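As a warm-up, study this chain.
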Amino acid sequence: MDTSLLLQYGWVLVVLIGLEVVLSADNAVVMAVMVKGLKPEKQKKALFYGLLGAMILRFSALFVISLLVDMWYVQALGAVYLIYLAIKHFIPSRKQKKVSHTNEKEPSFWGTVIKVELSDIAFAIDSILAAAALVITLPNTHTFNIGGMDGWKFIVMFLGGFLGLLCIRFAATRIVRWLGIYPVLEKAAFILVGWVGIKLAVLTLAHKDIALLPLNFPESVGWQVTFWGVMIVIIIGALIKVKQTPKKG
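Now compare it with the structure written out below.
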């Protein structure tokens, strides 16, 4: 792999890790809320099963998506998904109704585990779709394939998903606190996600089966300079904003 490809793959891995951190933090929070009604010793067991399920589901989804990742309609779905993810982040969500706690009886252990696993399915799909959408934007290395997908793309997706799981296990609560202290970082992360979605949309429009843009447009100097220039501006802007913004809490 030459230097330019290495830099592109390394950069996408960094962005993917950042996205997985956010998604994994959400996953960890949801899991914690679901098991909090159990006794402490049962909480640990339920979280263990939840983490095991998350690992199995994410890696299963990884192998399935690797068979579809080079198809233009999967690229289109990825573009729509990433742009949706970014827009959704900036649209205020409705306040959730407070759950009634009139029944103080400890919930069923296995019932709780099932709820955790069901939530893991949604997060697994979320995580792998986001990873696939980011990885699709990379050029193929033409070295080896895994499940019909460029081997190095698969490795980047695997590493992103694995590190996301580590975040659930070890660092999720700290990450949530950190993002709470510097919310501008989370905003910048989702702006980057939306911008990558735009890049994926460009790749889709330039696909040989669509051809609404010239086939070589995504690799053109003008587009590459525009894409990476905007990425750098977003990152620099976020870092400057962090220094100017006082910590929360």
